[in-house]
């Protein structure tokens, strides 16, 4: 896996998260993206490093969720 591939995988994940305004569980995102664990994990890391996704944990069942957080600049 190289940087180009990771960037492409990040683009796939970003488009999924951007297109649906909800929180995604890892398993759901994996199925929707069609990516393997390694590819999905690298993509999540890429997007997290860019500050494009946020993580949360459901207090009832402790399941982690991913969601997109857009930054808007008023200038």
Explained architecture:
InterPro entries: DUF2582 (IPR019707), WH-like_DNA-bd_sf (IPR036388). This is Winged helix-turn-helix domain-containing protein. There is one protein chain. The protein is of the alpha+beta class and 75 residues long. 51% of the residues lie in helices and 16% in strands. The protein has 3 helices and 3 strands; from the N terminus they run H-E-H-H-E-E. Strands 1-3-2 form a 3-stranded antiparallel sheet. The chain is globular and about 40 Å long.
Mean pLDDT figure: 81
Radius of gyration: 13 Å
Q: What is the H-and-E element order? A: HEHHEE
Give the helix level as a range of percent.
40-55%
Q: Write down the CATH topology.
A: Arc Repressor Mutant, subunit A
Q: Strand tally, please?
A: 3
Give the topology:
Layout: H1 3-19, E1 24-25, H2 26-33, H3 37-49, E2 53-57, E3 64-68
Antiparallel strand pairs: 1-3, 2-3
Relevant terms:
75 residues, alpha+beta, Arc Repressor Mutant, subunit A, three-stranded antiparallel beta sheet, 3 helices, 3 strands, globular
